[in-house]
Amino acid sequence: MKRIIPSLLTCASLTFGASAFAQSGATVPNAGTPRPAASDAPTFMPSFGLTKSGDAVQDFTVIAADGKEFKFSSLRGKPVVVVLCWPQERLDTINQEIAQKYGANGVVTLAVAAYTSRADFDKWVAKNQGKVGFTMAWDPTGPGLPPSEKPDRAAQEALDAKTVMRALWGGTSRTGTSGVPAGIVVDAEGRLSGRFFPGTPNPDGLANLLLHAGVKLAAANMPKVVAGPDAYVVKPPPAPVQMLAVGAEAPDFAMTDLHGKPVTVSDFRGKVVILDFWATWCGPCIASMPHTNEVAAHYKDQGVVVLGSCTSDAREKFDAWVKAYQEKYPDFVFAHDPLEKADGRASRKLYGVGGIPAQFIIGRDGKIAATQIGYMKGEVLLDAALAKAGIKVDPAILAQAVEDQKKRDAL
Length: 411
Known about the structure:
By secondary structure, this protein is α+β, with helices and mostly antiparallel strands. The chain contains 11 helices and 19 strands.
């Protein structure tokens, strides 16, 4: 059983997008880690949560394949690739590739089964023992507390504090964490080199982190682009912005659709618009789309339309994504902000968005009627937000929305 914790899914609205050099210092709220796409830029980050490149990594204890405890510090003297994962065949393949590629350089690949039961870990060991080159370990905090209508926040926080993820990430459950799989490189002195993204098509991120950790790589394994010293310096986050308030006039701005046709917010004046800021790299944004499309389809007879404004993202990524998925979301109007990751992009400058998905409900009068930030599966808050713009919503749904909001407030 995987660990189940109610979590509001959001992504940081990164100033420069998802490449490694640009993401320096950006941390992402719980479960919303953006997945970098393949590109010529190395995909890594110079921090893992609150732990920065060069910081000593906090020690932790895991259970080895032989059932015995061992401390991470026992690997001191060797560079280590740590992958927090679930026991899955796909991840086994990724871990094995890392072990085979860099093992000859003295690199230890440590795959830690996180948020996993002991029984599932033992099955994983039985399946792979003697067949793989990576070290298998289990986080003994296990899958966590079972789901509950009234979660014990104190008990959850106490358990979270004991996890391997928390030891590496730092802070508390209130400061967020990462989804899995998540990978880091630790040098022979026990200091963080940085974070990489297991399974990313471009391996240059991991290769650069190993170089930074003092590993001498074979010529065939050298990254195409070698990161300079500045890539390992955590940059300060952008200055916070004030979100556009309910009641304000919705600012108009120019976008283009897949075919290059101009699209503006004012094109939909007279309709109720769900202006949905999203990005192709934002997992929570994509996760929210089926529900948003369902809501749009349900209320379109009342004049509801969804304008999905792709922000902080490259045009080519937008084009590729929309070509692949437009048919899946027929009630979305997808458009791209040409300012992409610049500070002047509409999501940040005009609407004050600091995290996505961010949805602004714009009434027929062109004013902001409600806002909806993040997404939790099964909630009906978007329906309730539409009601504030005059859309007729079933009273039972509105009652459920009240309970959904209580759950959010309790997080």
